[in-house]
C-alpha cells in the first residue's frame, strides 16, 4: 500500500483492550497506519508498506491529549511569573500579573509556535487552545501539525484592581455578546479548515466575568452543536467568594442552578471546591455535583504549585468518580512534566503514595482528555482510531534500566526519550526535532515580544510598578 506505514516489532506498545476497557502493554507487535487511521495491531502485519519503521528498541504510546492551554500568552511570561507574589489575592497571578503582561499579535504567533513545539516534543498530539482570537490564529494552529481544538474566549467583563487587594469588574454585555457571536463563526471555520485537524469548543472565559445569560446560551449552543464547553471556575479564592457574594452559591452549585453543568462541561482548574481547606467552607457538595453531572475537571498542577496552591486532591477527585483531564496552563508546555507533577503533588498533599496511581494520571492524559472532547478515536491505540502515535526510545539512558515503561517515562525520562510523534498519520517530530515549526526562530521572536510587553507594564499596573519591581531578579546585577 502506497500510503501505509508499519511500525515493526515494537518492543512495547500501549494498546487499548476492549475486553478490559483499558490500556494494556503488548510486546513485540506491529502497528500499521494507512492515511490517518490505525489499521492493524498484532504479531505480524502481512502486507508490504510504503514505509517500515524498526521499533525493536521503541515504546509506542497513544498521542497525549491536553485539554487546557493558553499558548498565545503564557510563554511570554517566562522569567516573570515563576514566583510571583500577590498577597492581596492569595498569591494568584490572575489579577495583578496577567492583566499587565500583555502580548501583541506578532508576539502571540511566536508564543504559539514555542508552546506548540514544546507540546509536540512532549508527546501531545491534541491540544485545546483557549485564546483571545486574532487574525491568523487558526492557520497558525494548523501549520503546526498538531490536532487542535480552537476555544475562542469571550466574556462580559474584565478584571481590574485599583489597590492590589480589591477586585473590580468592568462590565460590557454588548461586547460579550459580540465576542460570543464571533467565537461561533470561528468554530465553524475551524471545523471547515482544510487541514482537517481543527475543531472547536465554546469557552465563556471565566465564571465570574460572564453573565448567567451568556453562559447558559453558550451551553445551549454546545448541546445543539455537540461541542464541548470549557469555563474557568473555582480557580481562585477571590472568585469563590465573589460568586457566593453575588448568588449565594458556590461556583459549581451556581453552574448547576443555571443549567450549565453537564456532560459537555469542562471545568478549568476546579481547585477551590467547597471542601478545599483554604476556604473553611461549611458544605461538602461540589464533588458530588461534578460527579452526577458527568462534567470533567481540567487539572493543571504546575501553575498552581508555583503559588503554593494544590488540588485537594487529584486522587480524591478520581475516587469520587470525577472525570479528569490534564492541561498545561503555563510554561513550559511540557505535558509529561505536568503529568509527573499531578501525581507527586497529589501524594504530597494527601501524605500517601496510595492517593493516586501512575495509571490514574496516564488515563487522564489520554482517555480522560478524549472523553472531555467528546471523542473515542484519540487517546488510545486501536484499529480504527486516529493515527496519533508517540515513539519513545527505550534505549535512551534516562529510560534505563527499563523494567516498567510508563514509570521510566513519567518519573524520569519525560520528553528526553520522545523521538518521533505522528499526528493524523503524519510525522511531525523526527529524531526530537519539530518538522513543522522553526523552534529557535520562534523563541527569538518571543524574546523580542517580551521586551515590548515589559516596556508597557508601568502604564498598566495599578501602582505604576516596573517589571523589575513586580518580578525582581533572583540575583543582583553588578555593572562591569
What does this structure look like?
- The protein is α/β, with parallel strands linked by helices and 480 residues long.
- The protein folds into two domains: 4-62 and 382-434, Roll (Urease, subunit C, domain 1); 65-372, Metal-dependent hydrolases (TIM Barrel), CATH 3.20.20.140.
- It has helices at 105-121, 137-143, 173-191, 212-225, 237-247, 251-257, 286-293, 301-305, 314-320, 335-350, 358-372, 405-413, 439-460, 467-470; strands at residues 4-17, 22-34, 37-42, 51-54, 58-62, 64-69, 124-131, 147-154, 157-160, 168-171, 198-200, 203-204, 229-233, 265-269, 296-299, 323-328, 389-393, 418-423, 426-430, 433-434.
- Strands 1, 2, 3, 4, 5, 17, 18, 19 and 20 form a nine-stranded mixed sheet that branches. Strands 6, 7, 8, 11, 12, 13, 14, 15 and 16 form a nine-stranded parallel sheet that branches. A two-stranded antiparallel ribbon has the order 9-10.
- α10 (335-350) crosses α11.
- The longest helix has 22 residues, at 439-460.
- The radius of gyration is 22 Å and the shape is globular.
- 53% of the residues are buried.
- The model has no long low-confidence stretch (mean pLDDT 97).
Q: Which second-level CATH architecture of the largest domain applies?
A: Alpha-Beta Barrel
What's the total number of strands? 20
The CATH class label of the largest domain is Alpha Beta
Helical fraction: 25-40%
Sheet/helix structural class:
alpha/beta
CATH topology heading of the largest domain: TIM Barrel
In quaternary terms, these chains amount to: single chain
CATH homologous superfamily of the largest domain? Answer: Metal-dependent hydrolases
Using the alpha-carbon principal axes, give the shape. Answer: globular
In what range is the share of β-strand residues?
A: 15-25%
What's the Cα radius of gyration?
22 Å
Q: What is the count of structural domains?
A: 2
Number of helices, counting only DSSP H or I runs of 4 residues or more: 14
Q: What is the residue-mean pLDDT, rounded to a whole number?
A: 97
Report how far apart the termini are: 65 Å
Low-confidence stretches: none
Amino acid at each position: 500500500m502506497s500510503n501505509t506505514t508499519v511500525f515493526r516489532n515494537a518492543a512495547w506498545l500501549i494498546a487499548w483492550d476492549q475486553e478490559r476497557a483499558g490500556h494494556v502493554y503488548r510486546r513485540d507487535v506491529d502497528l500499521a497506519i494507512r492515511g490517518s487511521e490505525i489499521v492493524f495491531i498484532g504479531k505480524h502485519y502481512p502486507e508490504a508498506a510504503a514505509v517500515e519503521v524498526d521499533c525493536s528498541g521503541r515504546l509506542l504510546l497513544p498521542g497525549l491529549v491536553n485539554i487546557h492551554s493558553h499558548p498565545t500568552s503564557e510563554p511570554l511570561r517566562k522569567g516573570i511569573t515563576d514566583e510571583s507574589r500577590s498577597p492581596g489575592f492569595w498569591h494568584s497571578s490572575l489579577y495583578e500579573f496577567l492583566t499587565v503582561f500583555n502580548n501583541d499579535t506578532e508576539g502571540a504567533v511566536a508564543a504559539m509556535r514555542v508552546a506548540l513545539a514544546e507540546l509536540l516534543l512532549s508527546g501531545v498530539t491534541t491540544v485545546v487552545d483557549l485564546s483571545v482570537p486574532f487574525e491568523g490564529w487558526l492557520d497558525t494552529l494548523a501549520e503546526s501539525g498538531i490536532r487542535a481544538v480552537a476555544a475562542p474566549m469571550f466574556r462580559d467583563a474584565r478584571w481590574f484592581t485599583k489597590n492590589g487587594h480589591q477586585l473590580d469588574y468592568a462590565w460590557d454585555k454588548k461586547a460579550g455578546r459580540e465576542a460570543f457571536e464571533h467565537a461561533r463563526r470561528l468554530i465553524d471555520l475551524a471545523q471547515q479548515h482544510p487541514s482537517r485537524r481543527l475543531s472547536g469548543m465554546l469557552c465563556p472565559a471565566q465564571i465570574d466575568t460572564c453573565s448567567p445569560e451568556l453562559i447558559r446560551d453558550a451551553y445551549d449552543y454546545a448541546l445543539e452543536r455537540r461541542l464541548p464547553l470549557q469555563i474557568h471556575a473555582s480557580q481562585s479564592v477571590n472568585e469563590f467568594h465573589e460568586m457566593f457574594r453575588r448568588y449565594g452559591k458556590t461556583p459549581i452549585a451556581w453552574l448547576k442552578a443555571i443549567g450549565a453543568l453537564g456532560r459537555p462541561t469542562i471545568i478549568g482548574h476546579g481547585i477551590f471546591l467547597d471542601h478545599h481547606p483554604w476556604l473553611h467552607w461549611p458544605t461538602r457538595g461540589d464533588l458530588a455535583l461534578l460527579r452526577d453531572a458527568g462534567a470533567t475537571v481540567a487539572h493543571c498542577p504546575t501553575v498552581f504549585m508555583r503559588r503554593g496552591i494544590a488540588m485537594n486532591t487529584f486522587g480524591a477527585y478520581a475516587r469520587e468518580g470525577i472525570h479528569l483531564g490534564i492541561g498545561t496552563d503555563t510554561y513550559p508546555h511540557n505535558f509529561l512534566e505536568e503529568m509527573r507533577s499531578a501525581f507527586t503533588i497529589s501524594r504530597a498533599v494527601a501524605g500517601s503514595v496510595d492517593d493516586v496511581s501512575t495509571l490514574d494520571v496516564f488515563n487522564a492524559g489520554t482517555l480522560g482528555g478524549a472523553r472531555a472532547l467528546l471523542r473515542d478515536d484519540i487517546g488510545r491505540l486501536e484499529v480504527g482510531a486516529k493515527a496519533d502515535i508517540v515513539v519513545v526510545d527505550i534505549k535512551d539512558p534516562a529510560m534505563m534500566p527499563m523494567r516498567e515503561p510508563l514509570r521510566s517515562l513519567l518519573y524520569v525520562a519525560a520528553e528526553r526519550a520522545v523521538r518521533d510523534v505522528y499526528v493524523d498519520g503524519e510525522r511531525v517530530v523526527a529524531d526530537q526535532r519539530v518538522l513543522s515549526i522553526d523552534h529557535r526562530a520562534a523563541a527569538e521572536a518571543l524574546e523580542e515580544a517580551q521586551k515590548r510587553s515589559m516596556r508597557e507594564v508601568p502604564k498598566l499596573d495599578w501602582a505604576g510598578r516596573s517589571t523589575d519591581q513586580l518580578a525582581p531578579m533572583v540575583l543582583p546585577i553588578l555593572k562591569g
